[in-house]
Amino acid sequence: MKHYVSRAGTVEAVRGVDLEVRSGEIFGFLGPNGAGKSTCVRMLTTLLSITAGSARVAGVDVTRDADAARHRIGVALQEAGLDPRQTGRELLVLQARLFGLSTAEAEQRARELLALVELEGAADRVIKGYSGGMKRRLDLASALVHEPEVLFLDEPTTGLDPASRLTVWDEVRRINARGTTVFLTTQYLEEADALCERLAIIDDGLIVREGTPAALKADLRTRWGDGREPTLDDVFLDATGRTRDRVAGEVQEVSA
Amino acid sequence: MSSALALGHRALREAIRTPDAVIPTLFIPLFFLAVNTGQAARIFPSGSTGFLHGQGYGAFQLPSTLLLAGSFGTAALFLVEEIEGGYFDKLRAAPVPRYAIVLGRLIAEGVKGVLIASLILALALVFGIHIASGVLGFVLLVALTALWAVVFVGLLQLVALKTRSAAATNSASLVFFPLLFLTPGFVPRSMLTRPMEIAASVNPVTYVMEALRSLILRDLVWATIAKGFAVVLVLGAVMLVLNVRSINRYD
After folding, report:
1. Contacts of A97 in chain B (CB under 8 A)
2. Rounded to whole angstroms, how far apart are CA atoms B102 and B83?
3. Deepest of A34, B4, B113, B137, by most Cβ within 10 A of its Cβ?
4. pLDDT class for B24, splitting at 50, 70, 90?
5. Which of A49, A70, A81 lies nearest to residue B86, judging by beta carbons?
6. Contact (Cβ atoms closer than 8 angstroms) between residue A150 and residue A181
7. What pLDDT is attached to residue A189?
């Protein structure tokens, strides 16, 4: 749970979130803007304190042993967190050094990761000159320097063109295939449908749906009972209590 | 400590790649040195002005130049940029001691302080200013200026961590100007009016300036030098504690 205190009083940004992500899966975390997705990710990645309740990542309590948790997780947040004045290689070497690798090991790891995200050609250029897609891929690589058990990706494809988005999807699949658990927040429902084995939908700080995309669609199909095939968009709208009209009228939200 | 050094190395690289942010650090203090000396040198002729100890007025003004140069560090503004861009969170999500994150930039600022102070002093020597305390004095001048740079930038870094705002951090840097003018910058403390003398006496920058000045004009006057170093060490300790506390509570 996360409380914020403002002049208007205490706000519960996230409440009643009870989730379990299985080792080795890609877990999708969906929700409208302001639903609490990023707050959850920031709490799970030790960037935000938890004011009530607890969270364990890879078996480690993130509040009690934040440093041990940091050793086990990789993080790529909404904004590609990169230092624009370093080169891609320098950034990865530094990141690896911060995770305790020796200089030689860090340089070797940087070479491997640059190859993984296909940025070898741009490795010695300063990041300021990278395209959005290149920055995303480098951000992903920097989250992997220490081969984390769990990778948190907070809206990793927001703002990317379709080709770059597909490249990031491929990277995520490749990373997951190597055994890394992926916790992914996204506003793109087709992204969740394409990548995630299971997902949860959060609205107003509460989990309102959880399951596999197929199971969630099947459940809605049953409740509709008129033979129509629901999409994940429909599941999302149903779960968050929005209708397409309300979506158009009140909040700029989903469209697949 | 290796994390702090790695982050310090990164911050130095950043400074090298942004010369446009570093050059004013050198140019503006030298500009003030030339202007202030040009305006007051004839009022205080070296032959008949006791507090100049036989040197020109430029030598008396040199400590202000060093302090001003030490107060132009860019670390805090780069930190705000990093907070806004998300890289700061990347660092916070790494298993790095929190103190290393604040110390990294301060180490780089110290190295920059050494280089800039050495350069200004070398230029001063070229223009005929004599360091009365000799080689050891030169080293102490550089060290005290660099320590001041670390302390001042550290205080600005604290503002950056608290406000996360470039505008607020920039405004906070202007605090230095009243502090610099509330010192015996143009004449010794004993020649100030009584209210000004009281203000200068409670201003810690005064003791740093007097330590620097004694090294340039009077040889190794340890009592004065010690006060200057004591001020930067005490302020530095307070600044470090507050910085570490601030980053530990950063949410």
Report:
1. 2-3, 6
2. 13
3. B113
4. confident
5. A81
6. yes
7. 87
Could you tell me the sign of the dihedral formed by the alpha carbons of B58, B62, B65, B69, in that order? positive
Residues with Cβ within 8 Å of A50's Cβ and at least 6 positions away in sequence, in order, are A1, A2, A43, A62, A63
Q: Do A99 and B94 touch (CB under 8 A)?
A: yes
Residues from A in contact with B at Cβ < 8 Å: 45-49, 67-68, 70-71, 73, 75, 77-86, 90, 94-95, 97-100, 126, 142
Q: Considering the entire predicted model, what is its pTM?
A: 0.85
Q: According to DSSP H, which parts of chain B are helical? A: 2-17, 19-40, 57-70, 75-85, 87-92, 98-126, 134-163, 166-173, 176-181, 194-202, 204-217, 222-248
Q: Counting Cβ atoms within 10 Å, is residue B139 exposed (0-12), middle (13-18) or buried (19+)?
A: middle
Q: Grade residue A1 by pLDDT with cuts at 50, 70 and 90.
A: low
Buried/exposed code over A150-181 (b: 16+ C-beta within 10 A; e: otherwise): bbbbbbbbbebeeebbebbeebbeebbeeebb
In angstroms, the CA B161 to CA B148 distance is: 20
* A86/B14 touch (CB, cutoff 8 Å), yes or no: yes
- A75 with A45: CB under 8 angstroms? yes
| CA distance, residue A220 to nearest chain B CA (Å) | 39
Closest to B209 measured CA to CA, from B71, B69, B35, B67: B67
Euclidean distance between CA atoms B7 and B16, whole angstroms: 14
As for the ipTM of the complex, it is: 0.84
For residue B60, give how far its alpha carbon lies from the nearest alpha carbon of chain A (Å). Answer: 39
B74-87 pLDDT tens trace? 888 999 999 998 89
Cβ contacts of B82 on chain A, cutoff 8 Å: 83
